[in-house]
Amino acid sequence: MSRETKSRSKSKVLAEPPPVQAPGLIGADELHGLDEHLSAMMDRLKAAIYKPAGTKPTPVFNAAQLARLCGKSGSTMLRNLEKAAELGLADGLAEGATGSQRSFTLEQAIDWVCALGGAAYQRREGQQAAVITVGFFKGGVGKTIVATSLAQGLALKGYKVLTIDFDPQGSMTAMLGVDPATVEAEETFTPLGTPPGHPLHRTTLAESIRPTYWTGVDLVAGSTNLFQCEFYLPLRAMNAQAEGRQFNFLEVLAKGLRQIREDYDFVIIDTPPALSYTTMNAYLAADAVLMPIVPEGLSLQSSAQFWDMFTELFDTAEKLRDTPKRYAWLGVVPSKVESHKPAVQSMLKWIRGFYGEYVMTSELPQTDVVKTGGTTLGTVYDISKYVGSNKTYERAREAFDRLVNEVELMTRRHYWGEELADDITGGKA
Ligand SMILES: Nc1ncnc2c1ncn2[C@@H]1O[C@H](COP(=O)(O)OP(=O)(O)O)[C@@H](O)[C@H]1O
Ligand SMILES: [Mg+2]
């Protein structure tokens, strides 16, 4: 912009200041007008985010990306691709096309992963899904991004994953392509929270499960109706006490999950930034807890308060149990890390001082690749081709891959009890 036009536009801005609002101009009519406008705009925004209901696009993969997913070199992958017809798998070549450009859908890619070895761990007879709850009572630390990426990343490795959204805001539900406003109470955890005799009441979660746009990831959605559990759960506990019965109101989810645990390898639960009776159900159903911490400001103070409250609720549940509860692992993962900042480096040291061996090796950088703003809702795994620097993408992708690998390894070792060599990297050894 030339100096002349710049100064002209500046004077234009100065010439037309925003209208000064006279006091008393905004009343019920204006507020209702704004409310109607916002809801119409919300419909337009949703149409942009969700397209027609439930059709969030999945990524497509080229041969090199497929090779990476399968843990094969480019040449080994190519040799396998030449046998596609024999194996009954997609060769990725468009019908009738002469070019050698290959392209695979998410489903075809996962089929290839499974055909070339599949999940690194095969559950043995009687072994159950590992339930991992992602939580912290601070918002905006990346819980939902971590939970969603973990589910997608594990599915890309050939595992079967169930996700449960415990956040009434339904952010993970939205990330998985479902508009939380369209979710009915019976499609969430809520029926398990309601008392017997309530029209919604159920004791199992199976009926609430739906498939998602991501092959291998199912969902029990979250929506605002989850709030009612906060009222019903303690009420049921009080009623039981009055009748001289014992009722563990903090482990309703743990019980409801029992029947479906053999159908999945992992259950990933996303929680709201609060510790309540409802979210405590998510922590007590868990075999492992993953806690993202942003190395900044008052994070450590909040996290210490979190464990303080958590321990108190844990003790309450312990009194209602026959056997003591034990977790297979706890993982604190530094999230949204801006590692070039000296203050962040010093905070990371403090985090290691506070949490010692519970701090994971993985660290998630603050990155432009992860976005939930505007009309894009996605994780690193949603991207087929990053419109930005490849270095930026790779850095983010590798960090999330490391987290997925670490979670997989800790679960194999500490939950399924597999003996693993220390130097195993999580690749298909
Ligand atoms: N590693 C990251 N880099 C950049 N932005 C991130 C990262 N992780 C999360 N975010 C952004 O931070 C915001 C909060 O993330 P979210 O996962 O919703 O946090 P929480 O569930 O803890 O409230 C979102 O806008 C999300 O896109
Ligand atoms: Mg969240």
UniProtKB/TrEMBL annotation:
Span of domain AAA: 130-316
Protein name per Swiss-Prot or TrEMBL: AAA family ATPase
PANTHER family, A to Z: P-LOOP CONTAINING NUCLEOSIDE TRIPHOSPHATE HYDROLASE, PLASMID PARTITION PROTEIN A
Organism of derivation: Derxia gummosa DSM 723
CDD domains to which the protein is assigned, alphabetical: ParAB_family
Region Disordered, residue ranges: 1-22
